[in-house]
Amino acid sequence: MHPAFSVLVFTVISGAGYGLIFLMVLGHLSGVEVLQQRPLLLSGGILALIMISVGLMASTLHLANPKNAWRAFSRFRTSWLSREAVFAIVFYPFSLCYLLGVWLEGAQLSSGFLVAGAISALLALITLFCTSMIYASLKTIRQWHNALTPVNYITLGLMSGALLLCAVQAIVNQELAGDLQYLATVLVIMGACVKVIYFFWIGKPSGSSIQTATGFTQASVRLMDQGHSSNGFINNEFGYSVAADKLLRIRLASLTLAFALPLLLLWTGGVVLMVLAVIATLAGLLAERWLFFAEARHVVRLFHGDQRT
Amino acid sequence: MKLGLVVDMDTCVGCHGCATACKQWNTSGTIGPLSDKDPYGKDPNGAWLNRIRTFEVGDTPNSKTVHMPMSCMHCEEAACVTVCPTGASYKRSEDGIVLVDQDKCMGCNLCAWACPYGARELDPDQGTMKKCTLCVDRIYDTGLPEDERQPACVLTCPTKSRTFGDFDDPESEVSKLVRDRAGKQLMPELGYNPVNTYLPPRNKPVVEVHEMTGLTQSIKGWVNKIIQR
User: Fold this and answer.
1) ipTM
2) CB-based contact (8 Å) between B88 and chain A?
3) pTM of the entire structure?
């Protein structure tokens, strides 16, 4: 699959934003001591909203006909993309209401603002899940059509959100709190495990083959001619191929930047180093999201010369 | 009604006539232009609703070149319709034709991702998704003579490899062809239940190859022939 840069930016930046606000609100409402401060909640909440908004705006850049984008809210009953759009928009009034409450009343919120906060945390998680299901629902791409896809998106969103929360807290208090450090460590290790499992899992060819694609299930089948003399939409969108050694190098770079380096920086506990950890993990996740597309092999490639997907 | 096409892979010669007739009819049809980008340049690109792919099946000498013209299969479980966020993609309940409302499409490509057959192509100029309409603007046109109310690809096919009809009617020509010739769906394992069906090539004996025999065998053969006389 051709990796569209706007979609990579959207899923990584918004994912981190949703992860940040989910963990922060959850920690605040469940009484985690370090999160009971107004400046921390305000700066974390505003950062999350900015990241989510930038990501959502980036996502509209890949539309070929954006003037009809407003119609994307209309097929909530069947389309995961439509569900994502609806939940992403519904999230705003609740999160803004929660932040208004924090601004007016500080960390000790009255019940109305508390409910708004709880709902915005829930909507953040649901939106993240809907994004992952856009990919996981496509039967045509076996690397996406499995339960690991939503697990990946949610775990990595929460992981990058936890590192962001650590960075914001470290900046506000000039010292990293032990609770958050512990939480981020657990999530980074979980994220790395989930990703490594995914890499192993997609390694084995399965599903459709050139035989089932052409109906000649008892014979060897080879493509002789794609039927056109230059690349069209289908080739450009689905024919994206990267050499195996380059994929391996990017996998290693992604694992190092997104997981190993942040884990090391996390345990130094320095303020500047925490910001570096966030930058490293976002860069690593961009590479990870690029791989998610570049390694996905659509079944239409069977009509363009591939033997297996 | 369940309208669709039967394609005979035994008789198709891969002439691209169907694709050309399709482009010609549909570029001024109900879904607007089928645009090309840089059509006479070095790297031309454009939206086509019909592509012909050619495969070699089996190993020599039992091999055969097979041409597969592919357009929208008008699937019964059309995932391209359910994933569409704007409602631009829809499947008509009366005849099962899958269409894209060009006024609603936002060009997100998700339907093309959901289609296993590569039947949807983004128009490089319009920014909307284009696909086979089964010539919905021909087949119901009472202004046309009755035998011309068929898709452009079917009418133009010089080897009559394409048949159009109603798969719900067990006595229709398409249903009979599928029954008699063991028609196949492509990638049935995905569960989309495509309506268009492909007829596999008929089994014909392999062309005989003259085999060289040894000298003694040849002499024996000649002697046998002489004795028989």
Assistant:
1) 0.92
2) yes
3) 0.91
